[in-house]
Amino acid sequence: MFDILGNGIFNVDHELWEFHRKTTLSIMSHAKFQTLLERNMWYTFEKGLQPIFYAFAEQGKTLDLQDVFQRFTFDSITKLLLDHDPRSLSIDLPFLPYEKAFGDALDAVLHRHIMPESCWKLQKWLQIGKEKKLTQAWEALDQFIYPCILQKQEELMNKTIKDEDTFLNLMLAGRDTTSAALTWFFWLLAKNPSVKTKIRDEIQQQLHLKKDENVKFFNKEETQKLIYLHAALCETLRLFPSVS
């Protein structure tokens, strides 16, 4: 895992892990971060995710929800952390090497835990199989994240932005866990239409929406009123935990 995530929170222990934990918690608990998160997620939904849903529904096409939700969380977390919109959520669903690099990297890391060490090290030396994909993923991530960081350094009058590993770890955490939960959540809704109806009714009632009115922006305080929706999400995570 060090090949990709370096000394980020997923790879370290003891004092360094405690440092990363405190740093991450201090960021996420800040009031301005919460406001920025709400606005950023809604922007990505309104400008990226929602148009895709409408377009595929009108054309009667099948949509790969897992792929779309991975793009949604990738765009959201990248915009949040690096103030850069990769626009992977376009109607044509473009292939972006750095967006797919996360999946390839995780697949290769999992492969290392299954294969004998001598086998994957040989693959790494020969640059074949999963190890070749891992190398390509590493290069794609470097080519994507370093220019974003350099741009932010210039905007901040050359103040130093340290630890690229932290960005990669947070992007990984924000992309895969959330997208997995959303995918299972909508799969369960498709299997249980009565639950979907109850969630729609609760949103319309608590957010004071008319029956045919589109969902509008709602903040954290309004979200806390959606008790049934919260219960459905918790049940999804109980049945299909994103992290185990």
UniProtKB/TrEMBL annotation:
GO terms for molecular function: heme binding; iron ion binding; monooxygenase activity; oxidoreductase activity, acting on paired donors, with incorporation or reduction of molecular oxygen. Keywords: Iron, Metal-binding, Oxidoreductase. Signal peptide: none annotated. InterPro entries: Cyt_P450, Cyt_P450_E_grp-I, Cyt_P450_sf. Its cofactor is heme. Belongs to the cytochrome P450 family. This is Cytochrome P450 86B1-like.
